[in-house]
Specification:
Radius of gyration: 17 Å
Helix content: 55-70%
Shape: globular
Number of helices: 7
Strand order of the largest sheet: 1-2
Oligomer: single chain
Strand content: under 5%
Length: about 160
């Protein structure tokens, strides 16, 4: 599943059920017009790779402020529901957790990466029924990663203020 497909599905779900999950696009597409295309596709924010921490944190702050001001450390929009995600569709589970595993790996979140890898293996075998407990652990690890990133953001901001 591509990022654009995931955004489309999230936005469709929001139209049907309400609510809004802030989406920040991290992409290698940095040509003129790419930012606008991402925002038009449903993203709330955009950061081009290579990622510059100060730019990433500024965009997170901007997206979260527009979403109601919730700090990144308390964001809870990223949850994993095994019933809603799987629907008995092992291929869909595989694609989704494969994407998550790659993202977690980018942040060095080894436990989260390992949990996603376990779910990938279940899905590859066509076994989505035994994954519920892994989803619970996956959600907890995702929240830990969000908290760690928020702490890193605070440390980076304090360091930058000290050098100015």
């Amino acid at each position: 599943m591509s990022g654009a497909e995931a955004m489309r599905m999230i936005r469709e779900r929001e139209r049907a059920r309400g609510g809004h999950l802030p989406i920040l696009t991290l992409t290698a597409h940095a040509l003129k017009g790419d930012r606008e295309r991402c925002l038009d596709a449903g993203a709330d924010g955009y950061v081009a790779k290579p990622i510059v921490p100060a730019d990433l944190f500024a965009e997170i702050d901007s997206v979260m402020a527009r979403a109601g001001g919730a700090p990144a450390s308390t964001a809870t929009g990223a949850t994993f529901d095994p019933k809603g995600l799987s629907g008995g569709d092992a291929d869909r589970v595989y694609r989704t957790v494969h994407t998550l595993r790659g993202s977690a790996s980018n942040f060095g979140a080894e436990r989260l990466t390992g949990l996603a890898q376990r779910l990938e293996a279940y899905a590859r075998e066509g076994d989505v029924t035994h994954s519920a407990s892994v989803f619970t652990d996956l959600e907890a690890e995702t929240k830990h990663l969000i908290q760690d990133l928020a702490e890193s953001r605070k440390t980076t901001a304090a360091t930058q203020e000290g050098t100015m």
